[in-house]
Amino acid sequence: MSAEIVNLRQFRKKQARSEKEAQAEQNRISFGRTKAEKQLTRSLNEKADKAHRDGRLETVDDGA
Question: Where are the annotated segments for Disordered (predicted)?
Answer without folding.
Answer: 1-64
